[in-house]
């Protein structure tokens, strides 16, 4: 009986630490604190109450003296810091919340399962049943909270991507411009956000394996795979994006397995990311430098279907731009006209 009592006590202690995390993770999208608590102010509640009562009858000299006292208590003035407003939340807010939620959930579930195994070993049937219910309840709350956070994140990124003044114009394409943030699921079930790769060079490849221009590069010279492998140990991340509206997860998985892709294919069947970036063809390439700015946009090379223009040498624009980027040089060719099949948007 004592063992059962101890198991119950330990379980309740774990739950008391676990479930508050869901309340702590709730925050406004405008960058409000993610946890409860924080500075309550310079004045105590009693002092604030007395000040409200006394303020109307105070002379100007008394008010000035009070302000000076507050300045002394607050110490030297700090330089003003830029705060995020509700209309401009930080892209990292959602990712940080989701990462924290997943970590807390994993810790809690592991602890509860360990207690359950002990209860089974001690043949505490009622305690085991109760633990099963608690684990299921925790799992359900975790999934609901995670879904809510992901939906809020997606709404925020959709708003940023569809903002008219962020659309790409012809003049903007001539120089580096900030890469628009996005979050997409890969066809193998992972969630990938561009913000995860801040500090790395990122290659975006618009892909449609039904297109002969794409198939040429995958079936013959293996252009994309060779480049991805060449730079994978040089702080370069390669992401393929499929914006083909009628493509299926099964077909993408089959293509990835057949080609043994060293990078994921991201699901953009809605076309929102492709349209925001102005992707026109497959392939259409973008290179984002570690500072988050697009330094190259256009064709993979100057040889559609392996046909290099007469009198010219084969030039792989992406390879050249990557080499220049990782060695700290300015990209010499920032923009070329992409070739291939048109992106099959919805």
Termini separation comes to: 64 Å
**C-alpha-based Rg, rounded:** 28 Å
Major β-sheet strand ordering: 1-9-8-4-5-6
Characterize the main sheet: 6 strands, mixed
Structural class: alpha+beta
Overall description:
- Helix content is 46%, strand content 11%.
- With 346 residues, the chain is α+β, with helices and mostly antiparallel strands.
- It has 2 domains: 2-31 and 90-161, no CATH class; 169-342, Glutaredoxin, CATH 3.40.30.
- The strands form 3 sheets. The protein has a 6-stranded mixed sheet.
- The model is unreliable at 17-40, 77-88 and 164-175 (pLDDT under 50).
Properties at a glance:
two-stranded antiparallel ribbon; alpha+beta; 2 domains; flat; Glutaredoxin; 11 helices; 11% strand; six-stranded mixed β-sheet; 346 residues
Secondary-structure map:
Layout lengths: L1 H17 L1 H6 L19 H10 L5 H15 L16 H31 L3 H37 L15 E2 L4 E3 L5 E3 L7 E6 L5 H8 L3 H9 L4 E7 L6 H11 L5 E3 L4 H6 L3 E2 L1 E5 L4 E6 L18 H10 L14 E2 L4
